[in-house]
Design goal:
This protein is 76% helix and 0% strand. The protein is an all-alpha fold. Helix 1 packs antiparallel against helix 2 (46-67), helix 2 (46-67) packs parallel to helix 4 and helix 3 (83-118) runs antiparallel to helix 4.
Length: 161
């Protein structure tokens, strides 16, 4: 079980690193574009690059953020409930999250296949959309695995809220 947790953590961390590199890329492109615009030579397609990078940054950061419990957690109501009811809510929310992210991942795959078959590309740089869509599908699948590991930890008695 520990090995499974370690693999999921490593994959989440890898996606987080890609998200961080994407954020750094966005900053560099933005700064260079601003400077080049001042010189009268803006970067063609800078907005497309930043939009694609933004999708990667947000999408790829979700699994690791979930693993680290870095998201907003409101527990005003939950803390008033008994331990059994709290455990029940945690299990139910993890199960709903797993199903939701599996559903999103599946639909990203369908959408990516549709984009690939249609040959749709961005307007300026002619970058195909489908690789980003497939990357987001992988990220959503990893979020499902992350929530599954969290569920397993709950049943093992580990708490990290």
């Amino acid at each position: 079980m520990k090995r499974f947790f370690k693999v999921v953590y490593s994959l989440d961390l890898s996606l987080q690193i890609v998200a961080g590199l994407g954020l750094a890329f966005m900053m560099v492109v933005t700064v260079i574009d601003v400077v080049m615009r001042a010189l009268g030579r803006p970067i063609i397609g800078a907005i497309e690059l930043i939009c694609f990078s933004g999708a990667i940054v947000v999408g790829f950061a979700i699994p690791y953020s979930s693993w680290m419990k870095a998201h907003v957690y409101v527990d005003m109501l939950e803390e008033k409930l008994s331990q059994k009811v709290q455990f029940f809510f945690k299990v139910v929310t993890r199960l709903i999250g797993i199903l939701l992210f599996l559903f999103i991942s599946y639909n990203f795959i369908l959408y990516g296949l549709s984009l690939k078959n249609s040959g749709e590309v961005s307007a300026g740089l002619k970058i195909p959309y489908y690789p980003i869509t497939f990357g987001l599908a992988v990220s959503c699948f990893m979020e499902s695995l992350t929530l599954f590991t969290d569920l397993l930890k709950l049943f093992q008695g580990e708490t990290h809220e």
